[in-house]
Amino acid sequence: MNLILRWIASAAAVGIAVYALPGLEYDGRITTLFVVAVILGLVNAIVRPIIKMLACGIIALTLGLALLVINAAMLYLTGFIAGQFGYGFRVLDFKSAVIGSLIISIASWFLSMLLKDNDDR
After folding, report:
1. Do residues 87 and 114 lie in contact, with contact meaning Cβ atoms separated by under 8 Å?
2. Could you tell me if 12 and 37 are in contact, meaning their C-beta atoms sit under 8 angstroms apart?
3. From CA 65, how far away is CA 117, in angstroms rounded?
4. Domain residue spans in the chain?
């Protein structure tokens, strides 16, 4: 049940980012938000650690600011993969990717804090 609630929270975070930024677009279907949430979760679980390991020197030199670029790249990759599967989610430019990844991260964190059950505390 906890996994489903986190999935819904992630989809809601993507929806908030799409609503807040004109540089993020989707086709208006609720299923697209849920699929994008799954793709983003998989990309962050599989690709992001590899990229972070390869870029650990740059991350250290920039005092972590390179993580913004990595997060933006993961959002771009999510948009590309969603498009390949026929879901209408697009990231239009780099600025939107950076701001969108920040919004998704903050919204996901906030919503997950609201959804914590007694076992997590």
Report:
1. no
2. no
3. 33
4. 2-114
Q: Are 78 and 14 in contact (CB under 8 A)?
A: no
Residue 94 CB contacts under 8 Å (≥ 6 apart), including other chains: 72
Question: How does pLDDT run along the chain (121 residues), one tens digit per residue?
Answer: 788 998 999 999 999 999 999 999 999 999 999 999 999 999 999 999 999 999 999 999 999 999 999 999 999 999 999 999 999 999 999 999 999 999 999 999 999 888 876 555 5
CA distance 22 to 92: 9
pTM more than 0.85:
yes
Q: Which two tokens stand for residue 2?
A: 């906890």
Contact present, 99 and 19 (Cβ < 8 Å)? no
